[in-house]
């Protein structure tokens, strides 16, 4: 399965080069997807320790090495030539070469739309002397905290507004990765986010994804570069849902392609196959929600008899209540293997847990932590998680 996945990915990266296409909106524009660079990604560096379930998913994914492009967009209309993001400072030569290949000079760029102010997106602005720089109002302060904006012709925008008059290009808030991180809609019209998502003919996702296949299937997996992880996860879910609902084509900065893709079987058969493959199914099954659901079922069916339905019972008056144990999965795993016998009662538990896998213990720990008041963030969050997880419990279980 993994071999097949790897071959398919390789095939796609060979087939997909930079792409150029026309958008026949009210005001037609030409879009070029340009990759300035390829990066080999070690996913363990992108997504280091987070939750046990995310890590389990990561372990599966990272057995192959991923190659990401570094995409920017060139959008040419009747009276503007705009770039969406500019790459790194160190890829200015590549940027100039790419413009040159399209019979353009840096001086001819009239607008630069910044999705967010990380160095790999703003690094090229200094090579574009005549451009007006458009940046989200929440993002500008973040930019100025890190580097100077002096000498730049900057104009801020609010979300859901047209960025260049008559262009059909709009920014939609996808905050979290950075405070003002925006996705860019093309061929769109409307005044609300819902209208823009529905009308957009193409979306540039910027940094919604760093590990595309993994995060498309399991949006709860945040990358190290997501400044506010909770918000970034919500933004990722929101954007994925909109792309699926409207079958909009899209590309992001750090994706393994430089061509439009869709969450749609017809026009991106290979992608859809990948997303729906057994491999991705495994990743899905390791998401937090499914982990919680699996953990809840296991806990109530097996552990609760001795440790109590709230995990707070002191077994035989000796074994501490589980809410006071920090490394539950690890201890339980050692009990299964017979390498831990703290209270000389190992055998009592061993028989009951002998069929469980490491992932089952991780899932059980996740659930126990969600019901222990000391460990849980709030009762409210628990209820929400428990409610969500029980709805999901029909998801097939992972085979080990
Ligand atoms: C039949 C009763 C029983 C069941 C069922 C049971 N346990 Fe236990 N558990 C025990 C006993 C007894 C011990 C103490 C073992 C020892 O060290 O002698 C224990 C110890 C533990 C400890 C270690 C506590 C510490 O401080 O060392 C953990 C963690 C634990 N159980 C988790 C679980 C989980 C998770 C489940 C369900 C998957 C489970 N147990 C199911 C009886 C049970």
From TrEMBL:
Give yes or no: UniProt keyword Hydrolase. Answer: yes
PROSITE patterns documented for this protein = CYTC
Q: Does the keyword Hydrolase apply?
A: yes
Compositionally biased tracts (Polar residues)? 388-400
Q: Which UniProt keywords apply?
A: Heme, Hydrolase, Iron, Metal-binding, Zinc
| Disordered as annotated region, ranges | 380-400
Q: Which residues form the Cytochrome c domain?
A: 290-372
State the superkingdom: Bacteria
Mind telling me which SUPFAM superfamilies this protein's record contains? Cytochrome c, Metallo-hydrolase/oxidoreductase
Regarding protein family, the annotation reads:
Belongs to the metallo-beta-lactamase superfamily.
Show the PANTHER family listed in the entry. Answer: QUORUM-QUENCHING LACTONASE YTNP-RELATED-RELATED (PTHR42978)
Which protein, by its recorded name, is this?
Answer: MBL fold metallo-hydrolase
